[in-house]
Amino acid sequence: MQDADMNDMGFGTRAIHAGVTPEPVTGAIMTPIFQTSTYVQPAVGKPNGHYDYGRTANPTRETLEANVAALESGTRAMAFASGLAAIEAVVKLLSAGDHVVSEENTYGGTTRMFTRVLSRLGIEFSYVDSRDPHTVAAAIRPETKLVHVETPTNPMMRVCDIRALADLAHGADALLCVDNTFASPYNQRPLELGADISVHSSTKYMNGHSDVIGGLLAVKDEELWDELMFLRKSTGAVPGPLDCFLTLRGLKTLHVRMERHNRNGLAVARWLEGHPNVDRVIYPGLESHPQHALAASQMSGFTGMVSADVGTLERAKAFTENTRLFSLAESLGGVESLISVPALMTHASVPEDLRAEMGVTPGLVRLSVGIEDEQDLIADLKTVLGPKDS
Ligand code: P1T
């Protein structure tokens, strides 16, 4: 269905129909996997429409992109080979001498790309605690072209005020990019709150089935999209057609999955909170989260991501190596529950002092609560941590 017809429809209807039209030759209701690298041209320099080469254009990928644009309340979206490739494309809008203000608690791989790869190209980065807009304002310089945040952050669940940061960035003629991986557009739509770019590791909630590595971004501005398209075409980090098909299929149930992730995440966070073997639970949906009110003002649900500090690495290992339904693995956002120790896994590449300062202690455990039955998940945690009221 075309986008104009979809604007008044609900999120679930858009997840299933936006951008998707029956295939014209056969009427196939499911978007075919156009597994081709090139297209035959009827005459020299006259391709079929804009289909000249697979890196530039692919119908399966374009259907996914139209669908994501509708879900993020954008006008355009773009798919990449990974979440990091999508973020890299955003930073490559900049040139040597330009400056980025970034939240300090991003995914460890994002921090590594900024500190050890992109900074070598002459782009400067300042790392701040973006929970306080004043700290972001103080880091902005005349050369600042981009403010990059995650909200909630991985794994400390820091929440930043997207509206306030959009105003700040725009006041400085900079773009605001929000990594929306943890929330998903079902729970939070940064473009509606003033952000210029919403970026995803679609490996996570967007695809939702732990079988694809992918990245996505969505924008409102056509010129910005053109620039990003040029960058992707010129640098090449496109996803394969099968991965686009799988992600599009995953998106058709995003609203149903997220409802259950939200419910199970809250139930697990509530069960862990106050448990005698857990020192601290961090979940934006709990009233004890210092930014619960802000989170509730810009999110409609709080996902299945829960962090809990159990005090020591020894206890974290005993916890994460012994659960049965929560599998010990990096990644998140799939239908199955995962558990990890960020300091030794996803954030091992972040300098130790920065990790400690942010609270990414060796005793911090991160749970990606899946969509299994709530009572079975709690029972699994209970087997390892002991009953709550013992
Ligand atoms: O793995 P990739 O698709 O390249 O996405 C990178 C990425 C970007 N942004 C956020 C917020 C992320 O969490 C990630 C990847 N994160 C994990 C693999 C993880 O376990 O935290």
Task: Explain what this protein looks like in three dimensions.
With 390 residues, the chain is an alpha/beta fold. It has two domains: 11-251, Aspartate Aminotransferase, domain 2 (3-Layer(aba) Sandwich), CATH 3.40.640; 259-385, Aspartate Aminotransferase, domain 1 (Alpha-Beta Complex). Helix content is 35%, strand content 14%. The protein contains 14 helices and twelve strands. The protein has helices spanning 3-6, 11-17, 59-71, 83-91, 108-116, 133-139, 162-171, 222-235, 241-251, 254-272, 292-298, 313-320, 352-358, 374-385; strands spanning 76-80, 99-103, 124-128, 144-150, 175-179, 197-201, 215-219, 280-282, 305-309, 327-328, 338-340, 364-368. Helix 7 links the parallel strand 4 and strand 5 (175-179). Helix 2 (11-17) runs antiparallel to helix 3 (59-71) and helix 3 packs parallel to helix 9. The termini are far apart. Bound molecules: ligand P1T. Ligand P1T is lined by residues 82-84, 107, 109-110, 150, 154, 179, 181-182, 201, 203, 213, 215, 330-332, 346.
Secondary structure topology:
Blueprint: H1 3-6, H2 11-17, H3 59-71, E1 76-80, H4 83-91, E2 99-103, H5 108-116, E3 124-128, H6 133-139, E4 144-150, H7 162-171, E5 175-179, E6 197-201, E7 215-219, H8 222-235, H9 241-251, H10 254-272, E8 280-282, H11 292-298, E9 305-309, H12 313-320, E10 327-328, E11 338-340, H13 352-358, E12 364-368, H14 374-385
Parallel strand pairs: 2-3, 2-4, 4-5, 5-6, 10-11
Antiparallel strand pairs: 1-7, 6-7, 8-9, 9-12, 11-12
Helix pairs in contact: 2-3, 3-9
Bound molecules: ligand P1T.
